[in-house]
Amino acid sequence: MELKSCAAFGYCGGLGISFKFGNYVAVNGYRNGYFLIPQRTLAVQRNLYGKLSVSKRNRVRMAKTSSEEDDLSESDSSSVATTFFDAGEMEKSELQSEMSRSYLEYAMSVILGRALPDIRDGLKPVHRRILFGMDELNLNPKGPFHKCARVVGHVLGRLHPHGDTAVYDALVRLAQPFSSAAPLIDGHGNFGSVDGDPAAAMRYTECRLTPLTKQALLSDLEFNTVDMIANFDNSQTEPLVLPSKAPILLLNGASGIAVGMATNVPPHNLGELIRATIAMIKNPEIADLELMEMVPGPDFPTGGSIMGVTGIREMYTTGRGSIPMRAKTHFEKVKVKKIERSAIIVTELPFQTQKAALVARIAELVNSKVVEGIADLRDESDRSGMRIVIELKRDETPEVVLNNLLKKSGLQSTFSANLLALDAKRKPDRFTLRSYLKSFIDFRRETVYRRSKFQKEKAEQSLHLATGYAIAQRNISAVVQLIRDSDDTASARSGLCGKFDLSYDQAEAILAMPLRRLTSMEAKKIDDEIGTIQEHIKRLETLLTVPDELNAVIIQELVAVEKLGAVPRRTEILVDDGGIDEMSLVENNESVVLITQQGFIKRLPVEEFSTQRRNSMGKAGISRLKEDDVVEHFAYCRDRDCILILSNAGIAYGIRAYKIAQVSRTARGIPLSRLIPGVPPGESVASLLPVSEFRDDEFIMLLTQ
Question: Could you state one GO cellular component term attached to this entry (predicted)?
């Protein structure tokens, strides 16, 4: 059949026979050569590519083979002869349904293939392929470092056909100690910093696997522990998931934005996770509170503090939670030009907070006078650790300045946790602490079972061959004579099988056996080998049939992983919820509150008034009064005190002193109605009473006329 035009790629002349590759069709056009056309391709607009004029709502449908249905499970390398309908034969399709279908396919591709990690090994596809590719390159922990460019090229060419920048960025993150609680890649060179500096180009940096990655993620791949799938071009296979021996998802956390969903999992402490996993293996009905005692909360690689446990418990029980994080600080006395001043020292930051951006933010707050009391700001961080020095002005209260910084800068932030991952059936699902540990334990049981089954089959094959060697040893003279009398290898093989009742594999192994194995010492070794293999098979059969024995192996391997990679907890969990009281931002200075007869109020610092000598004129407390207005009420207080304003109607109105505007000594003040709205007409101030603390044994007595 000859096709005059192609809707997908424009006019291309006469087309010959085409071949199907998965969801694409290779077409032989004598002008353009071979090229690929999607099986379902959207129609083109009028005169856009060629002479074909088709409605936007139309879609070209390629003719099917005699089977009438495309077998999507066929290998991409299969070729099937295909013919086409005439280009003018179209099938109408509603734009809404077509866009819905296409967008759904795109969404599922992002969810399954890019954004969400697998709950079993805690990795996204790009991370999994990077580690698997490095294992293929034998970048072992004790081996030399290799250029990251070599790793990226290997992964791109064989496993992950996407951009090199995306692959390298993913590799860099796996090597950053401030991004992962347990880095899976050992990096050599500039891999970025907590200041937000980017990593060096891939041609400069080097990498290799860490011991934890090699033992906990890649050690059992050769034992058929997980399913292998074809790579993008069917040239090799890759693991669908890595046989993880450690709870990597909660260990290093994950973040990703898919289509219609997102995940944000905080990192945790390896030792705590393993202890909780072992406890759940021993007692599947363990209470959630007991699990939370073993895993008290996230453990961020940058340290810091977590304020309160409410958000943590919500996250562990519902899969969502808000976790307030705070930098670790302390106060010091520093000397500047022989003058001793107080300083706030920052040694640890909240997770995902960039140090350089934080310092710039604090400087911006100081320059804009949003935060006052800071004289100098410098970053003294070095190889020994982080140290940000916030030097205060003289007579400033460090606690007040710190509280202002916590509220207005990045010294305190919130981690919004959303525990979402692909479950064992590759479906997005939100998990809790209990459900995650259960999923991980089920996966470990499956991988250990498959490994034991594979090893048992291999051991049985070895036993089968060793039994053949033993038969040959017992009949060595007859075996040698039979081989010498045989015309060729095939006749010798068939003779061994017929005379000694050997299998094809046993006979082949005997023919390939070196002469040194015919000695008497080798005969004893063969007998010992048979006994060892038989004991190994019995142990493997026990693992496959007794669940407690299988659990014991899982626990043993968990303990080994803990010894290899466990570190002390870095993030401190405080009972305080991290809320900053508004009064903690205010210095408790001495003040004077004045109220005039016409209802103006203001607050003055005590320093505005000074002791006068006798017969002096004194200082005016307020000068811009109306002619018929006078100061009627006067009270000494602290700025954090509650000022009780008692009206002539016997009603007490309370207001904190620091909320009263502090103005100059000669200013009139502001109307009291602004601070206390809704006061009925005719109601006036009868008395002014400052209260520092409300106690149960103190009362207010009102006397009327």
Answer: DNA topoisomerase type II (double strand cut, ATP-hydrolyzing) complex
C-alpha triplet 571, 577, 579: angle, nearest 5°: 120
Fold of 328-410: Gyrase A; domain 2 (3.30.1360)
Q: Are the C-beta atoms of residues 398 and 374 closer than 8 Å to each other? A: no
Region 59-81: mean pLDDT is: 40
Residue 203 CB neighbours (<10 A): 10
Average pLDDT, the chain: 82
DSSP 529-580: HHHHHHHHHHHHHHHHH-HHHHHHHHHHHHHHHHHHH-----SEEESS----
Could you tell me where the DSSP H helices lie in 345-413? 355-367, 398-408
Using DSSP, state whether 375 is helix, strand or coil. Answer: strand
Domain boundaries, the chain: 123-243, 328-410, 450-555, 586-691
Does the domain made of 450-555 have the CATH classification 1.10.268.10? yes
Neighbours of 501 (CB within 10 A): 9
| CATH code that applies to domain 586-691 | 2.120.10.90
Q: Where do we find the tokens 């992983």? A: 561
Identify the top-confidence range among 225-229, 471-475, 675-679.
Answer: 225-229
For residue 48, what are the contacts with CB-CB under 8 A and spacing of at least 6?
Answer: 10
pTM (two decimals): 0.73
3-class DSSP state of 259: coil
Cβ neighbours of residue 533 under 8 Å, at least 6 residues apart?
459, 462, 463, 466
Nearest to 333 by CA among 400, 396, 404, 410: 396
- Whether the CA torsion 268, 269, 272, 273 is positive or negative: it is positive
The predicted-structure confidence for 108-160, as pLDDT tens digits, reads as follows: 888 888 889 999 999 999 999 999 999 999 999 999 999 999 999 999 999 99
| Model pLDDT for residues 5-46, shown as the tens digit of each residue | 333 333 333 334 444 444 444 444 433 444 444 444 333 333
Pairing status of strand 572-574 against strand 305-307: parallel
Backbone torsion region of residue 145, taken as left when φ is above 0, otherwise alpha when ψ lies between -120 and 50, otherwise beta? beta
Closest CA to 182 of 146, 216, 221, 148: 216
Chain Cα centroid distance, residue 101: 30
Catalytic machinery residues = 204
Amino acid at 330: H
What is residue 67's predicted lDDT score, i.e. its pLDDT?
42
Q: Yes or no: say if 439 and 431 are a contact pair by the CB < 8 Å rule.
A: yes
Q: How confident is the model at residue 345 (pLDDT cuts 50, 70, 90)?
A: very high
CATH 3.90.199.10 assigned to domain 123-243? The reply is: yes
* Per-residue pLDDT tens over the stretch 348-377: 999 999 999 999 999 999 999 888 889 999
pLDDT digits (tens, 9 = 90+) for 408-464: 898 999 999 999 999 999 999 999 999 999 999 999 999 999 999 999 999 999 999
Residue whose structure tokens are 């998802």: 249
CB burial of 401-417 (b: ≥16 within 10 Å; e: otherwise) equals: bbbbbbebbbbbbebeb
